[in-house]
Amino acid sequence: MTVSISRRGAAALGGGGSVLMRQRRDHARLDAMMNRWSDGGATDDERDALWRDIVQLVFSHAFAEETVLWPVLRRVAPHGEELTGRVEAEHQAINDLIARVEKSPDDPRRAEWIQEAFALIRQDIRDEEDELLPRLRAAFGDRRLRSIGAAWEAVRATAPTRPHPGVPRRPPGNALRGVPLSVFDGLRERAPGAGPAARRASLLACGAAAAAGAVVLAVRTARRPART
Question: Transmembrane residues, as ranges (predicted)?
Fold first, then answer.
């Protein structure tokens, strides 16, 4: 019987740098932002900013999971294929719903769609914390969980932060198509169209190099033996 990581302390999950604690911190941050968006106390501008932050974290977090965690889980856990397939389907449903929200900013159903997305995100968090992540705790020691956590963090930092229809959910396809898009997402958020062309090209090259290095690190981590 698995024990949810939501009911275990940091020491039992491999310490603060463990991938399990990193996941749980992201989940808590998402929950807090979704609650603040929904509670009615924020202004329209604040809710727009919250939504942008939620979208960025949802996509970078899911990309890191799909690149680093789920391939490892499929290799070491009984029923890993079934478990990760269910969560990947949840990720795709979230992707499609957020894409609909982003494409229709003036649609009167926008708030309803956002709440539907929040419900899907919360279900995804529960499935991960109660079913998938405890199996990583069972398979790996603390040091390995921290090593996986470092790879996960590196990928998350260079992952796509917006919905991109058609990007596969599994490596290597997600990395080959998603990593270049992550660079364009970053440019759009941090240096939109107005800067000099040379500056934008330099940012693009640096971002692509960092993203490629992160994916290489993740792949190497995933190939190590189960108990180290």
Answer: 201-219
Distances (CA, A) of 214 to 68, 111, 184, 222: 10, 35, 16, 12
Report pLDDT digits (tens) over 77-119. 989 999 999 999 999 999 999 999 999 989 999 999 999 999 9
Each residue's pLDDT tens digit, 186-217: 544 554 444 455 444 444 445 544 555 555 55
Residue 151 CB neighbours (<10 A): 24
> What is the C-alpha to C-alpha distance for residues 211 and 180, in angstroms, rounded to an integer?
8
Rg (the chain; Cα; Å):
18
CA distance 216 to 83: 25
The two three-digit tokens of residue 31, written as one number: 């929950």
Is pTM beyond 0.85? Reply is: no
